[in-house]
Amino acid sequence: MSRRGTLAALAACAWLAGPAGAALIDTRLDDPALAARIDGAPLYTLSVDALARAAREKTPGAPRAAALQTAIMNRLLAALARRDFKAEELHPSTRVTFQRDVAADDKLAASLRAQYGKELEAALRALPGASLNGLVRESFEPEPAAWERVFGKGGKLQLEYVLSAEQQAQAKKTILLRYKLPAGQSGDITLYDVYRRQNVQGRVELFNRNQPYLRQQARLKLANLFVLHWATQQFGAKAVDDLRQTLGEQDEVLALLALHGIGDDIEGESALLGRLAKQVGAAEIGAYYRSHKEEFRRIERVKARHIRVADERLGKEVVAAAAKGEDFGALARRHSTADDAKAGGELGWIVHEGKLSWLQQLAFMQPEGQVSRPYRGPVAPDQAASWEIVLVEQRVQGYQAPDSEAVKYTARKAVAREKAAAQMKALRERVLHDAAIEVDGKQLDAPLQLGAST
């Protein structure tokens, strides 16, 4: 629908204001299969139902409208993420994880099971034998020669659990089972199909010729095929594909948020944050330091004493004596084996600069006026062990220097995150402003709030 619609059309629309603009929503969509259209493309009811169920598992009573607005925002932001960022930025590759399309199918099947578990159980009971076995026409166990053609000779140390192109071709020829789905659709599950489903741990099992694991994974593949086939029969291929897309968009948006320093991993890094951090100048660092000075409070120096003993038992006795009120200096003169024992274990003032010794670091860790427990000192294998007991008599607080590397590093990261968050907010507003959105008003159980963060 055009934003320049008639006054009558505008009366049927809902304005959803955000902090810096508004999105015009046409609520006259009338198609039970569709929850919304976004720039003319359908968002299926099946997809919103899945998000609503997942949301209610976490928050009972969560409105369905919240799931709809999440689906709409995710679709808009995921499209922007794919357009503006390289795939390797959004999804850094790793050899230990699952293939993205495999993970997407698993996630899709899991969502359908969670939402339609009873219906799927009924469909399983309707199969011959009332189980997945009713789908299997033939099953095969790979012969030793087949294992060797695909995975090489057994017992070899593998640096990588990856098949070459030739090995993959052999795996595709190795059939594990033949199946026939309801309504006549037939197919094969091969060793290659199972191999593609694995992360590195699963591939290790295959390279080790784990036959029970192989059979289990082939059955899991068949179970997913059955679930997706059932859903396609019930809702149509387009609706199932839309649910797959919707679930994938959740991951795309999480990746987009992570790039902007938003999400569960607040200490995580990204290429975007790195670029923004390099652009932070001295003036911004200074401004951040002045407005967040308490973040840079530190102990500048401590005045401390210590007692060094040869075994932990004696150390505990010394600590117990100090707890009863015995003078720490007197205990040091009586028990300490350190050179400063005659001076009552006096360490003097320790200043926080340069590289501190292990004992100095220990002193900076202790609260003022409290005798520490005995700590075993780090010694070489050929040296006798010793235990240190520390008493900090006075601590002097201060602040890190505004031009220190620690301040610069912290300020750059923080300012970069602030800028990234502002960019993310602007992206939300831009995609909403530019989008033409239609929804089925009859499916709403609460007002939409697309202008707010979702």
From TrEMBL:
A Pfam family of this chain: Rotamase_2
Position of the signal peptide: 1-22
GO molecular function: peptidyl-prolyl cis-trans isomerase activity
Catalysed conversion reaction: [protein]-peptidylproline (omega=180) = [protein]-peptidylproline (omega=0)
Enzyme nomenclature, EC number: 5.2.1.8
Keywords, sorted A to Z: Isomerase, Rotamase, Signal
Domain PpiC: residue ranges: 299-394
Enzymatic class: isomerase
Membership in a protein family: Belongs to the PpiC/parvulin rotamase family.
Protein's UniProt name: peptidylprolyl isomerase
Lineage of origin: Bacteria, Pseudomonadati, Pseudomonadota, Betaproteobacteria, Burkholderiales
